[in-house]
Amino acid sequence: MASIVASPARQTFSFSKFPPTFLAPIFSSSTPIRVAFSTSSPLAHGRKRRRDNNPNRGVSALRRTGLKNKVEMSKYPLPQPVTDPTKRSKVAVDDNHGLWGFFRGEKQALSTPEETNAFGRPWVVEELRHKSWEDLHSLWWVCCKERNILATQEYERARLKAGYGDAENLERARAVRQTQKAIKHALTERYYAFEEARRVAVTDPEVDLEAAPGTQAYRPSYSDEPLQEEEEYPIKASAANA
Predict the structure, then answer these.
(1) 112-117, long-range: CB within 8 Å, 24+ apart, which pairs?
(2) pTM of the model
(3) What are the tens digits of pLDDT across the range 127-176?
(4) Which one of 96, 101, 136, 148 has the lowest number of neighbouring Cβ atoms within 10 Å?
(5) What is the 3-state secondary structure (H, E, C) of 202-238?
């Protein structure tokens, strides 16, 4: 067994047997032993650095770093912009192109505040209840086209820092959204009415929901019975007219 004798300056250890060989450096000195540790080979420090063959070394989207080696441009010269408008080649554009739908009237990017503010009131639900499916469908896409035009003009005003037309654009866009909201309201009412009619038709023996297209789905019970001829009652002349 080992006995420990403690002293203020130094601790000494006595063993009844010699300590293991790997513990001998601990008891040889009181000062700690420090050894430099490195995972690299000592021979690698004197070697010449080899060329990195990875072309994507250092590319990181998170750190926004590019290639470490400079990349040369193509051997072909870059095209020079044509600053003179008279020398520019004309590009043929279709007058009926779909992108012209983002502009109003004479394909103008911006409208004056007076033109933007010249609009009527939005449609209400009472008026849309009398419209057909085709009319509601057409009106919906007219509203979508109008919102595209207003969004294009809003972006163009912000790009040019025009400083006008924002209030008129906002009022017109609000009226268009109210019309679309009323269209949804009218279609929702028709949907609930259709579902209620379908629920009643399931329990109605006179309605055939599985009828083939082009055939009569509603067959009233009195349709197969022959119509009774109405009896004619002669009109007797009154004594006063006799």
Answers:
(1) 112/165, 113/164, 113/165, 113/167, 113/168, 116/153, 116/165, 116/168, 116/169, 116/172, 117/168, 117/171, 117/172
(2) 0.53
(3) 999 999 999 999 999 999 999 999 999 999 999 998 888 999 999 999 99
(4) 96
(5) HCCCCECCCCCCCCCCECCHHHCCCCCCCCCCCCCCC
